[in-house]
Amino acid sequence: MTTATPPVTGAPPRWHRPARRTLLVHCGWLAAPLGSLALTALATGGRIGTGAWITLTAIAGSFAVLTVIGWVRWARTDYRVTHDSFEVRSGVLTRRLKSVPLHRVRTVDLTAPPLHRLLGVTVLRAGTAGSTDGGGEISLEALTAADAERLRTVLLARADVRAADEDPVVSRINWRWLRYAPLTFWVIGGVFAAAGGVYRVLDGAGIEPWKLGVVRGAFDEFGARALWVTIPLALLAVVALGTVGALVLYVESWWKFRLEWTDARTLRVHRGLLTTRSVTIERARLRGAVLREPLLLRAGGGATVRAVAGGLGNKEENRKRSVILPPAPRTEAVRTASGALRAGFPDAGLRGHPRAALRRRRTRGLLLVTLPGTLVLAVLGALLTPVLLHCAWVFALVSVPVVRWLARDAYRSLGHGIDGRYLVTRSGTFSRDTVVLQREAVAAWTFSSTPFSRRAGLVTLTAAVAAGEDGYHIRDIPADDAPALAAAAAPGILEEFLTYGPAKSRADRRRR
């Protein structure tokens, strides 16, 4: 039984061992040979030959040896948290002591593959942003989920966010982040974009793709089989191709990624395999950061980070050059944003928005998605085939709960607040963006509303900033609260209108 990590006190901290279930984790390699042996037995009707018995004996011997090795390794592995470091002792003949200073801890990653989840254990990795090839990283193979969470809490509580001022390296590539590469909408959209590019190239060369033998054969094969078979297979092929493409693109784009302060005034992003990219952002032009969580990436616990900075080109160039972290664990994204801002990233404790904002999102989804789709299918069904009439009511039946769920998620994502020097706003469901802006960077405010939002008493407040996307929205806040929020976030812009505007209007009316 693993002992929970206690708070660090004046007494010398005790050493603890990983969970005993670590020994069972080492048995995961048995799945492949035993599965192969079972399939062989089924294929031969239960008759196992001499070769199979030899294989089974080898498996048993390997199991015994690896179990002894795993037990010895477990018995000789200890960890503890001292007042200033996280330490792990390991090794049988040669004892090794690995230590990470707590103030340099940047990441505490918990990973649980299927076998680990089945056994209720997880792998903990803690390291510094400046670690090279894992050299500054500590890994514990298997802790119980509860102990891992407690240890992570202790490590992160002791980690000093201000250490970003001391450590020039904010973040560097970790290839375990590859698991986040497929969690983007481009896994499917990228395949069609690539297909469109190939079509344009062939069409420009005077080749009609539809007349190629391979294409015609594929369409003939597709039409000759039942749709319930071909459509899932086609979707599976698209997802597989998109996943491979996403992995290749991730590796090419983020090879040797490194985000660092080259000096006290310059933040640099260096990355790329075939095309090397190096973007430098002056601290004076860095106005904030955006924590971006697309829907699929958010479901996988990941996020990306963009810098809000001036001097990065037009909007298209800015979107490419402002990314300072690839898809990565959300904890790493928060730490990277904190390191870039050299301050804590205030993404918690935001003020919620009124329920009228939820009603607006539900109504908008039903009017823009459910109603048009149902009407189109119904009209086509009346004109062409009754099958589409059934598709219409099925679409309505399915889309209504989906729209309501997305509207609820979008409403829960809404939030805003003021945290010290920063204005914080969060919104979105397909891409939930948390924007942290320097309050002094706000140059102007725009209040916008529609007849429907005015009826609901809501207004969208846009902060104009000479950096990034030029304007960042605080969506659907109470109209009565918007002027006070704008005045508090960026003093000196609205005070004249709030203080003198009504009096001037009354004087003008009296003069008239």
Overall morphology:
globular
- Percent helix range: 40-55%
- Count of helix runs: 16
Mean pLDDT: 81
Class from helix and strand fractions: alpha+beta
- Percent strand: 15-25%
Record keyword descriptors for this entry:
single chain, 512 residues, alpha+beta, PH-domain like, 4 domains, 4-stranded antiparallel β-sheet, 16 helices, 46% helix, disordered N terminus, UCP026631, membrane, transmembrane, PH domain-containing protein
Describe this structure in words.
With 512 residues, the chain is of the alpha+beta class. It has helices at residues 22-25, 31-43, 50-75, 114-119, 145-158, 186-204, 213-224, 227-254, 295-299, 315-321, 330-341, 355-383, 386-413, 451-455, 482-489, 495-511, and strands at residues 78-81, 85-90, 96-101, 105-111, 121-128, 137-144, 169-172, 258-263, 266-271, 277-282, 286-294, 302-309, 323-329, 415-419, 422-427, 431-438, 442-448, 458-465, 471-478. The strands form 5 sheets. It has a 6-stranded antiparallel beta sheet. A 4-stranded antiparallel beta sheet has the order 7-8-9-10, with helices on one face. Helix 2 runs antiparallel to helix 3, helix 6 packs across helix 8 and helix 12 (355-383) packs antiparallel against helix 13. The radius of gyration is 29 Å and the shape is globular.
In short:
The protein has 512 residues and is of the alpha+beta class.
Write the layout of secondary structure elements.
Layout: H1 22-25, H2 31-43, H3 50-75, E1 78-81, E2 85-90, E3 96-101, E4 105-111, H4 114-119, E5 121-128, E6 137-144, H5 145-158, E7 169-172, H6 186-204, H7 213-224, H8 227-254, E8 258-263, E9 266-271, E10 277-282, E11 286-294, H9 295-299, E12 302-309, H10 315-321, E13 323-329, H11 330-341, H12 355-383, H13 386-413, E14 415-419, E15 422-427, E16 431-438, E17 442-448, H14 451-455, E18 458-465, E19 471-478, H15 482-489, H16 495-511
Helix pairs in contact: 2-3, 6-8, 12-13
